[in-house]
Amino acid sequence: MKTVKIAGKTVPAIGIGTWHMGDQADQRENEIAAIQAGLAAGARVVDTAEMYGSGRSETLVGEALAGSKRDDLFLISKVLPENASKQRMEASLDASLRRLRTDYLDLYLYHWRGNVPLAETVVELQRLQTSGKIHAWGISNFDVADLDELWALPQGDQAAANEDLYHLGSRGLDFAVLPWQREHQLPLIAYSPIAQGDAWGHQLTTNAVVKEIAAAHGVGIYQVLLAWVIRNPQVLAIPQTSSVQHMEQNVAAASLTLTVAELAALDEQFPRPTHKESLDIL
After folding, report:
1. In this structure, what is the dihedral angle of CA atoms 228, 34, 61, 118, given to the nearest 10 degrees?
2. Do 78 and 140 meet the contact criterion of CB atoms below 8 Å apart?
3. pLDDT, position 154
4. Yes or no: is domain 3-269 CATH 3.20.20.100?
5. Which DSSP string do the residues of the chain spell out, in sequence order?
6. In whole angstroms, what is the distance from residue 177 CA to residue 164 CA?
7. Pfam families given for it (predicted)?
8. Residue 195, Ramachandran bin (φ over 0: left; ψ between -120 and 50: alpha; else beta)
9. Nearest-CA neighbor of 186 among 227, 220, 158?
10. Which of 37, 162, 251, 278 has a C-alpha 20 to 30 A away from that of 31?
11. Cα separation of 50 and 111, whole Å?
12. Residue 82: closest CA among 54, 44, 45
């Protein structure tokens, strides 16, 4: 099983995403069951945010994790840009912790850039880490210029991870962001790693080569897409599903290794970028 080391902890390279979870009351039982099935299958990372459903996702996650041993989990949440200030961040974090039914986060991410000076945000994240309410902090939706700016700040290089959109149909990170992160030993957390089931027209699940590779390994298409995302070291994928079966298959993808020939065939279908592209954000 592929693993990733984040903030000093080694975790399986497939985690559990929760965007959109908690939004539909009639899906609540299915969503809780899916999260619990993912943990039973070996996942350790659960990723959420105060933005997701205006806190409903965090509340759902808190309920789903209520019977789990806290030390076995790696829990991530995110602060909104408007709350990433000295005046508001701790109250925002405290609200997340209450919803999640925990007294600390393993990783707290600055969700995306806003109007609060980055230096102020970093100072407050460092203070909250010192307080013990978060064990590490990081950023999300940061491009190379943002990362350069962060690293130039005092203690900016203490960031433990960057979470960006990344999947086979959206490879902009391959040109600049991923090389930068490898050079600076900053892990990537890939959100929407299966392109939200082709919701944005990437046609990954209908591609003949993807289907052939899945058939050759006797696995589902989404497992191939996830195995591609985590093909490089220090990349964690956080797919979201409300299906117990799909969740178990997602977690199993951490044990799937694509061959050099298969990766080359996927490169032909979905070419690596040859120039800097704008950061994809959902």
Report:
1. 10
2. yes
3. 96
4. yes
5. --EEEETTEEEESB-EE-TTTTS-GGGHHHHHHHHHHHHHTT--EEE--STGGGGHHHHHHHHHTTTS-GGG-EEEEEE-GGG-STTTHHHHHHHHHHHHT-S-BSEEEE-S--SS-HHHHHHHHHHHHHHTSBS-EEEES--HHHHHHHHTSTTGGG---EEEE-BTTB-GGGTTHHHHHHHTT--EEEESTTHHHHTTS---TT-HHHHHHHHHHT--HHHHHHHHHTSSTTEEE----S-HHHHHHHHHGGG----HHHHHHHHHHSPPPSS--PPP--
6. 9
7. Aldo_ket_red
8. left
9. 158
10. 162
11. 9
12. 54
Question: 145: which 2 tokens?
Answer: 């210029």
List the domain boundaries for the chain: 3-269
The DSSP code sequence of 53-64 is GGGHHHHHHHHH
Q: How far apart are CA 272 and CA 268, in angstroms?
A: 9
CB-based contacts of 93: which residues, under 8 Å, 6+ apart?
Answer: 79, 105, 108, 128, 133, 134
The pair of structure tokens assigned to 270 is: 């979905």
Type of residue found at 173: L
Q: What is the pLDDT of residue 75?
A: 98
pLDDT digits (tens, 9 = 90+) for 250-266: 999 999 999 999 999 99
Query: Which segments in the chain show pLDDT lower than 50?
Result: none
Measured CA to CA in angstroms, residue 30 lies from 35, 195, 199 at distances of 9, 21, 21
